[in-house]
Amino acid sequence: MPSISIIAKGIGLLIATVYLVFGLDNPILDYTLFGMVLLTVGIPHGAIDHLTSNPHNSRSSLLPFLIQYILMIVGYTIIWYFFPILALGLFLTMSAYHFGQTHFLSRIEGSNFLSILLFSARGGFCLMVIIFGSFEESAAILDPIIDIRSIIGFQWAILGSLFGLSLILQRINSVKFNLNDLVELTLLPVLLYLTPLAVSFILYFGFWHSMPSMIAEYRYLKQYPCCRNLTAFVKQLMPFTLISLVGISIILWIGLTYFSNEEIVLLFFILISLISFPHILYMDDFIKKRVNTGRY
Questions:
Q1: Domain segments of the chain: what residues?
Q2: What secondary structure, in 3-state letters, does 40-62 show?
Q3: Rounded to an integer, what distance in angstroms lies between the CA atom of residue 79 and that of residue 230?
Q4: Highest averaged pLDDT of the listed ranges 20-29, 78-87, 266-275, 282-291
Q5: For residue 18, what are the CA distances in angstroms to 14, 41, 197?
Q6: Which of 57, 73, 135, 149 gives 20 to 30 Å between its CA and that of 233?
Q7: In whole angstroms, what is the distance from residue 118 CA to residue 269 CA?
Q8: Cα 104 off chain centre by
């Protein structure tokens, strides 16, 4: 029987295929899909970092965790304010590694320089496919920070290099090439490239990253009283999911008064990067210590 992760990826491929076959081009539909995936798996998969780092978290231990988490967000906010190009580069680099890591869950034990390169190349390839697939829209969103239009002539060289590098590094890391890899390097990039920016990003983020991550979290945490079953696990996800959604919504609502549509999208992108920064660090530690070492 196919795993939940495989089924989710199949749904993602089906949605992208429907978009292409029927030539769907409706911003309302795009952002409705975006919101649904973000609400159900996108934000929730990062709302349980306090338990993946310490399943026995109590009120006394939760406070130091929250302080550290908030300080990371504040620190990254400062970088965004004073050094936006650096902040953007850091976020894209971290995201490439973070997304690529979930392509190889439980397939690489431990972590070394070559595995880090593999994750970054695979995740970077998919991210660049999404960006280049809707390049003008991506460039317009990033215009307040940097003009990326000069690299459009090198798009195929960049994509080809990342594609080839990920294959070479997979071989060097002795990770067996399977059917999942074949789909992720052939069919998936084509669909991501040809679908609208919001759709391609949320399908990849939701079904290739967030869902596998959430499954790994549940498999680990169900051993503990805090998440002894799916209902308990979902309840644990809710508080910080709601806090994140309320915070982002308030800031975006205020931003609607002062910013254009492209600037609102950029603001949303920055807000997501702020809550993603500490999550990426905690999730990396979780995967290295518990998932890739089989400590479920």
A1: 4-291
A2: HHHCHHHCCHHHHHCCCCCHHHH
A3: 38
A4: 78-87
A5: 6, 21, 15
A6: 73
A7: 25
A8: 14
